[in-house]
Amino acid sequence: MAMLEARDLTVRYGERAVVDGVSFTLEEGRWLMLIGPNGAGKSTIVNAVAQSAPYTGEVFFRGENVRRYRPTELARNIGILSQNHSVGYSFTVEEVVRLGRYSYAPGIFSRHSDADEESVERALELTGLTPLMEQSVLTLSGGELQRTFLAQLLAQNPKLLILDEPTNHLDLVYQKQVFALISEWLREPGRAVISVVHDLSLARAYGTDALLLSGGRPVYCGPIEGAFAPETLNEVYSMDVGEWMRRMLGQWR
Amino acid sequence: MLPDPSDKREDASASSPYIRRRRREGFGPGAYLLFTAIMFASSVRVPVKDTLTVIWAAIMKKPIPPIRASSIILSVRLPRVICVALTGASLSIAGAAMQGLLKNPLADGSTLGVSSGAALGAALAIAFEITIPWLPFAGTMVMSMAFAFLSLILILSLAYRLDYSLSTSTIILIGVIYSMFINSVLSLVITFAGDHLKSITYWTMGSLAGSSYKNALVLLGAMVICGSLILFHARELNAFAIGEDNARHIGVNVRRVKLTIMITVSVLIGVCVSIGGTIAFVGLVTPHMVRMITGPNHKRILPASLFGGATFLMLADLAARILFNPRELPIGVVTSFIGALLFVNIFYQTRRGK
Predict the structure, then answer these.
(1) Residue A69: closest CA among chain B residues belongs to which residue?
(2) Contacts of B152 (CB under 8 A, 6+ apart)
(3) For B2-56, how does the pLDDT look when each residue is reduced to its tens digit (9 = 90+)?
(4) Closest Cβ–Cβ partner in A82, A102, A138 for B235
(5) Cβ partners under 8 Å of residue B9, min gap 6
């Protein structure tokens, strides 16, 4: 059974369909890259699966309609990293990360278990935030904030990660680390990743599948290699993508 | 530039998270001690010893000692102090809950216009003599709760339509416009109120001078039920304070929590307004001061706001009584004066932070 299956997903803002009839399936152990120019509907797909945007069509997680999942149940299975983070109050990094464990003990009387402590500690460590755990999130840089929410997501320990531009705000070192971290995470059985990326080289290096979007419609859906056929890419981005990439990389020889 | 975290790093390695958490929890008892001290301090015009003997005798059902002031203490001062404390606690926890829910440090019954809505409800009930069949005295209370809830729904749905992220200025702007609108309707009601003019005018002033034990009992009931409901949602409020989308992602039942908090806040504000009128800014001032001591975690803010709010309003009431003795100020004047200054301060800081 497929881990995630979207059937005829459509999201409308007013009359305009931002996502128009997108269907895809995702098997365990796969990493699906959502690729396309700005406004192609990549983030909207993420929001729809996260139940943050009203949609028509259906999304199934392990054969069950996600609309039927209770919120805590959904959070234990599907974890989402949003594109933008804003924080209003001076919570510490640790407090934000600890909230990732909410779905395991949502009641006010439920106590922190050792598993909670362990996953919070591990998440802080993996994202390199242990030295900052006491610091207020209001004083963090964009990259540190991005890593804080990534740590929260890892503490949440879902089966499926949905990452909307995970390397947003991150410098090269952390871009590399985050992608290495996620591909390591993916090695355990029963897990899968969907991510929105703009960097085509990263997509090609780490992805196993690709969904290429243009104007809310799917242009290509399948193994990652197929998404890089020159005609398809050039059509989606309306430019000679291969030529541009070669020129950029050529500078480094 | 980021502050250098190196000194904090050493501190973090020296103490485990468990120890740190325990150290912060001394705040509750501290606030309680202050609360008790204020209870006595607010009766200073009668010798403290006499006050204590009279109250003690009344509690133990012994004969009341023949002190001249005993009837003043028991039937005027004590119920008033109790009502003031309970109102302060209720308004403060309601304010703290809204500031968490909306991720907005300026949210409060008075800044959002919810209190004005509740006052309109109460005024309508008085003017048109609306009563509930079995509970004749509850007419104003139910009307002000219902109007508080309707106001909250109206303000929030308008705010969401205009600006999904609910930025500080959008909410405040809508609150101001809504308050103006409601006040104009209130003036209209007063014009047609005729005989009830005096009792309606009382609502717009905000005063707890005429409180009774019955009022105290109602306030206590509302505070215990709604207060504990809010306290049970401390973790969810933390999630909302970080962001509504983030709350949804970590598994919070966003709809249910939002509705619960909105209803409990409306009940608290409705009850307080129907008894003491609109006492502005209490729910803004207390959580703000408390947050400076406890940090942003609602597990600490909420209980501390209960005690802090009681303390703050009792101090304000004390000031209202003794500042221009023998003339007494309405308590709302004192809280508005402090609150308005603080409002400007918070607004200035949040705007400058951007």
Answers:
(1) B251
(2) B112, B114, B117, B262, B265, B266
(3) 343 333 333 333 333 433 444 444 555 555 565 555 555 554 455 666 666 777 7
(4) A102
(5) A131
CB A163 within 8 A of CB A199: no
Q: What residues make up the domain containing B127?
A: 81-352
Position A98 confidence tier, pLDDT thresholds 50, 70, 90? very high
Sheet holding A4-13, edge to edge: A16-26, A4-13, A56-61, A64-65
For residue B148, the surrounding DSSP H or E stretch is helix B139-162
B127 falls within a domain: yes
Determine, yes or no, domain membership for B10. no
Q: Let me know if residue B33 belongs to a domain.
A: no
Domain ranges of chain A: 4-85+158-250
The candidate with the shortest Cα–Cα distance to B39, out of B27, B48, B50, B30, is B48
Dihedral of the alpha carbons of B31, B36, B38, B43, in degrees to the nearest 10 = 170
Residues 6+ apart with CB under 8 A from A200: A35, A228, A233, A241, A245
- Residues in A touching B252 (Cβ below 8 Å): 71, 102, 106
Q: What amino acid occupies position B129?
A: E
Structure tokens at B79: 């119920």
Residue B340 has pLDDT above 90, yes or no: no
Please state the domain count of chain B: 1
A4-85+158-250 maps to CATH 3.40.50.300: yes
- The Cα B91–Cα B283 span in angstroms is 5
- Type of residue at B225: I
pLDDT tens, B107-124? 888 888 899 999 899 888
Q: What is the pLDDT of residue A13?
A: 85
Closest by Cβ to B248, choosing from A51, A89, A92: A51
* B239 touches A99 (CB < 8 A): yes
End-to-end CA distance of chain B: 15
Q: Which of A58-62, A95-99, B63-67, B82-86 has the lowest mean pLDDT?
A: B63-67
Nearest CB partner across the interface for A131, out of B9, B241, B250? B9
**Min distance A212 CA to chain B CA atoms (Å):** 25
CB atoms within 10 A of CB B39: 18
Let me know if residue B69 belongs to a domain.
no
Token reading at B304: 């501390």
**What ipTM did this prediction achieve?**
0.90
CA distance B251 to chain A (A): 4
For B186-243, give the DSSP string.
Answer: HHHHHHTTGGGHHHHHHHHH---TT--HHHHHHHHHHHHHHHHHHHHTHHHHHHHHH-
Residue B270: give its domain's CATH number.
Answer: 1.10.3470.10
User: Mean pLDDT, chain B, as a whole number?
Assistant: 80
